[in-house]
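Board notes, transcribed. Complex of a protein with magnesium ion.
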Amino acid sequence: METQILKPTEDSINLACKLLQNGEVVAVPTETVYGLAGDSTNPSAIQKIFTAKGRPQDNPLIVHIANMDMLDGIVSKIPDDAKKLAETFWPGPITIIMPKGNKVCDSTCAGLNSVGVRMPSHPIAHEIISRSRIAFAAPSANLSGKPSPTNANDVYTDMIGRIPLIIDGGECDAGVESTVISTLDDTPIILRPGVITKEMIETCLNKKVDIAKGVLEKHVSDKKVLSPGIKYKHYAPKANITILKGTLEEFKKYVDMHTCDNMFVMCFDEEKDAFVLPTITYGSITSPQEQAHRLFRALRELDEMHAETVYARCPETTGISMAVYNRLIRAAGFRIIQL
Ligand code: TXA
Ligand code: MG
């Protein structure tokens, strides 16, 4: 299959809508990362998404809508917490898990009786949904296990020959995927952190929310998994990444004692000059937002540089940094050394 990359124009957006209506899969930009969109009500379109990504069938997809009316039939009920979150943060980078409605096909939700829904704020994603009137399911547009794509080129690298069309909307704003929160129980639980933080959600709901076990540490496989996505290997470049927790001084001492071939240091912008080793930076130490924006590109850059061994500086674990930390520990296969 030939894969076209087109800039967003009247024609290309109409083409994307048409492909979606015909049960095809199209890559679209969102404010978080690029998504691989297909009609959430069409089992054959959903199968094409799973195949294009090489995604395990038991990992459910997120359904994207353009207005609240579209929720009808996608969810069977809107819990109070979900309503408050939607009013406050939609359109925007938060996915709310609610009881599943019967319009959405079972394979979209991997057989679960819940569904994750979000209303993207990206104008192109929004336009495609409202023009096609298709609530599309869209996972991140990477091959399963690779870092999520934050520009059209990175989508192309992974999806060439697998999908007919990529709409090139430039770089994604957030850079990490949406916050995923379940509102199925009385105490909402964050299954995946994002740029809408725990603190923002607690303020909105005026109550404590939980963080799922797998978010800040390795998921233990014999426990019940709330979000199937938690248990899979994620965001991993070819290199072996190890996160070193400690001061910059301790970090430098450690890497100097462990130098080897094709070794890189992944550090914050301000620290670049502290190393003689090759470095890849992922944003300013003072800007978690920038770290989120740059992280996935930095991980892909490591592959492009043929890095084999990488030592990474550790982000914080609260606020937006929780999302950065959550992605980085997965990219590192949970190899973390406390210095
Ligand atoms: O920002 C995003 O959310 C992007 C863009 C394209 O919208 N999409 C995205 O999708 O990141 P994906 O498929 O890569 O990640 C969806 C996550 C997975 O970890 C999945 O397990 C979880 O959401 N999820 C989806 N539906 C769920 C459900 N009903 N219950 C629990 N977890 C769910
Ligand atoms: Mg993904």
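The radius of gyration is 20 Å. Residues 139-140, 148, 177 surround magnesium ion (ligand 2) (CB under 6 Å).
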